[in-house]
Amino acid sequence: MINHILLEQRLVLMTNYLLELEKLAQTPKSEFLNDKTKTGAAESYLRRSLEAIFDIGRHIMAKTGSIDLATEYKAIARGLEQKGIVDDRLGKRLIEMAGYRNRMVHLYNEVDR
C-alpha cells in the first residue's frame, strides 16, 4: 500500500529545497559562481530535491510490485514511464536528472556551471 504520508513529506521537503534554490537564483551569476558557500548550497538543495523525487518514485514502484528497492535512479525513472505513472516526456527528463544526480554525488566529472 502506498504511504501517502511519506509521499507528502518528500513533496514538502522538495518544495522547501526548491524555494531555497529560487532565493539563490536571485544572486548575480558572477557573485554566485565565486561564492563556494552559495554554489555548495545550491548543489546540496538540487541533490536533495532529486533524491526526494526518486524516493517517491522508488516507493511507488516498490509498492506496486514493480521494482527492487536497490534499483538505481535511472531504472526508477524508466519504470515510472513504463507503468504510465509519468508521461514519456517527464520520464526522459527524470532519466536525465538521474544522470545529473549521479555525477554530482559520485563526482564522475565536474558538473557544468
TrEMBL record:
InterPro entries: HepT-like, HepT-like_sf, Type_VII_TA_RNase. It comes from the Bacteria. Keywords: Hydrolase, Nuclease, Toxin-antitoxin system. GO terms for molecular function: hydrolase activity; RNA nuclease activity. Belongs to the HepT RNase toxin family. This is Uncharacterized conserved protein YutE, UPF0331/DUF86 family. Gene3D superfamilies: bsu32300-like.
